[in-house]
Specification:
This protein is mainly alpha-helical. It has one domain (3-72). It contains two helices and no strands. The protein has helices at residues 3-32, 44-72. Helix 1 runs antiparallel to helix 2 (44-72). The mean pLDDT is 93.
Length: 74
């Protein structure tokens, strides 16, 4: 595999893991605080839970990219 291909694969894996871990952490917090995003319907608690999961995924993605950039400088 060429160097740009390896770099793209590395970035994609870091993004995927960061998003997944962040969304999973946010989902755990959301469900433990009463905002169960898996309940049937689209009530306010479900929508708040969905927003929390989305934001958690985005934060996890940014944190993973920041960590990767720190390791790339070495």
């Amino acid at each position: 595999m060429s160097e740009p291909g390896k770099r793209a694969l590395s970035e994609g894996l870091v993004d995927a893991v960061g998003f997944f871990v962040g969304a999973l952490a946010a989902a755990t917090v959301a469900r433990s605080t009463g905002f169960d995003f898996l309940e049937p319907g689209y009530g306010p608690a479900v929508l708040v839970g969905l927003v929390m999961v989305g934001l958690g995924g985005g934060v996890g993605l940014q944190v993973a990219r920041w960590i990767k950039s720190r390791f790339d400088r070495r």
